[in-house]
Amino acid sequence: MGLSEDEQVTVYYTGLLHFAGCTAESEIDARFFGNEMAARPRMMTVAHGSRLELVATAMRTAHAGSAPLARLAGSHGERCDGTGYHRGSRAADLPAAAWLLAAADCYQAMREPRAHRPALSSQAAADELGREAEAGRLPHEAVQAVLAAAGQPRQPVPRPAGLSERECEVLTLIARGMATKQVARQLGISPKTCDHHIQRLYRKTGLSTRAGATLFALEHGLIGGQVSDLRRRARWGVLPNAGAGVLA
Question: What is the pLDDT of residue 18?
Answer without folding.
Answer: 67
